[in-house]
Amino acid sequence: MTAADAVAVVLWLGVTLYVVFGGADFGTGFWDLVAGNAARGERPRALIDHAIGPVWEANHVWLIFCLVVLWTGFPRAFAAVMSTLYLPLSLAALGIVLRGAGFAFRKATKETAGRRAYGAVFAVSSILTPFFLGATLGGIASARVPLRTAGNLVTSWVNPTSVFVGVLAVAICAYLAAVFLTIDARRLGEASLERYFQRRARAAAVVAGAAAIVGLFVLRADAPDLYRGLTGKALPLVVVSVVCGAAVLLLLARGARMGTRLLAVGAVATMVWAWGLAQHPYLLPETLTVAGGAAVASTLRAILVVFVAAVVIVGPSLALLFVLDQRSRLDAA
Amino acid sequence: MVHLVLLGGAPQLLPARIQMAFTLGIHIILVPFGVAFPAIALLANDRGLRKGDPEALRLARRWSKAMAVLFAVGAVTGTVLSFEMGLLWPGLMGRFGGVFGLPFAVEGIFFFAEAIFIAIYIYGWERLSPRAHLWSGAPIVLSGIGGSASVIAANAWMNTPQGFRLASDGSVVDVHPLDAFFTPAFGYEFAHMLLAAYMIAGFMVASVYAMGMLRGRRDRYHRLGFLIPFVVAAIATPLQIVAGDFAARGIYQDQPIKFAAQELVTRTSTHVPETLGGVLIDGEVRYGIKIPSLASILAGFGPGTRITGLESAPRIDRPPANLVHLAFDVMVAVGFLLLGLVAWLALSWWRRRDLPRSRWFLRAATLAGAASVLALEAGWIVTEVGRQPWIVYGVMRTSEAVTTSPAIWGSFTVVVAVYAALAITAVLVLRGMSARWQRDEADEAGLPYGPRLRFGPEGLTDDTGGRP
Q1: At the N or C end, where does chain B have fewer CB atoms within 10 A?
Q2: ipTM score assigned to the predicted complex
Q3: Reported pTM
């Protein structure tokens, strides 16, 4: 493996972790939004607050990680993506601001009216942000980002692939969140909330699965190269993803305790890697390869060193946070 | 005139610079609350534990709640900045991302660690043992220092770029990551910014309690809430003036034209006077007070020190000198006023172990928070505007780096609206918290480590079954 490929793997690892942890985090906003009025939605919302309160900021550092690795390791690709996909990325950035602020403000507010307003901001931006990020990825995957000049400001992200990936992103977020919240409710001994999120997890799994199948047809028409990759060299990963997804449905139906969360993560992670593999060796399909877009060798080595340092420093810290959080030692500030 | 030249055919340059300045100008106010405020809260926490002081613990706990809100807003506005690096300046990132991107990668580690431990600290009050909880705050302080060092390293690189070579075709080769991290400007910029963070967090938090005391709440709680942060800022202030002196000499060495702008020096000469105030009109310095030879003495410890003048650079390569000079004077003036305030407290403490009796001291201390922010913004203008027209000093012009996207005025408008709403709401939420604390003095009073909360059938409950 070349240094450029290694950095691409690091980048993709960051993307996967952001999709899984950031995605589950965004998804809670979806369930927050559809939880009904203040009385009906009180307990699901309390669980959501409880579940993401200590971890949401850490979950979103993965995005910063991806941006930094991209601009340091593949600067020209970063500049091209940012130039062409200016609008969806600006909207995603604003969504991130509104979401974080909405959540923090709601937590620090006691009055119902204020809590409702901040909660609505949090929930709506939790849905819009992954949509715009997904639309951005769709623009990249369908080869709409040229290298030397900025591509079309609008059609680069308002196109079939972008809309599909955007919707799929929202569905995946909701799916992951519902599975995670089901497990959280179970851990806290909340039987009715467990059933509540179990039903929603099943529905979200069906919707996400259906969206993925419809999406394959969209890709065949709109992003044929990616489609060929997904049905060719990346097919084994696609199959694993489908099997994991089906297994989750089965386990949810039986109310099984073990493995649901892991399989759900597996279904999503293999889908992300299937895309990466299908697109390889291209960073920007048809225009820039991983090797062609990589920074000079000393920079790539430095990124790998920083990555190892990050694993050594951040890994145990993050594990500590998750363990404390899962043992409910970090409640209610 | 200068501006027309600067814009030089890139219609996006003006809105891009304004948007960057606006978002960075807001974010930089939040930085001290992520970098230095945790240390201040930990001091209170430590005092509370060592002396069994419930007031100090109550302060620490409340500060950690305010910290949670401010850190969240700082985290998201910081995320926006990483988007903007590419959205607004693709020319810079596309060409030099592989050189000065690395400090940002290092910063990522520190930010990650900070986000993790700030969550553990904030959410750990009821849950961890007091000792473990206090120590969970230590990584926050360390990563605040490391994180600001990394971001400053990137900024210092833009001011004194090194660690790479440009090939004949303009591509970047021979990248040396460590040289690109530790550039000549790194040391003095980092010391100056870190001390600024401690001054601002200290003076800002202290000003809240100074205002409370002015309104008659002169209990021990308010006194402590004033003294802990104020003393932190008081220690940082004289150090900051020394660090600023070093920074000015560093700029004299590394960026002579920026130095000429901040000191308003037009022609290269020796025995250059220090101009306090004053503006440059048609190439002549008007008004202002001139102290003979002082600029030369400060730059090189002798009146014979030669200082490069603005006129030595082509007009197109000069920063807007009046703005840079005015900002520099404001920063220095506020710095010395704050030093005076610190000296006032020191004198009173030395004489009678107490705060000055005069209400004017509290009035001044109330203003000190906003004043320190003013100095921060002014200093940042000196650094950033003083570097213009270069985005990478002497290597790449800002106009070469800017995006070609026609959508900037639109995004800028939205950004202003959203940030204005954000700022107003943040203030309202913090005031709401403070009002709640005042109404409800008994709220968690004295027992920050007591009863354990759990999430049960009734929602959140404490050990006695009551809702918190």
Answers
A1: N
A2: 0.88
A3: 0.88
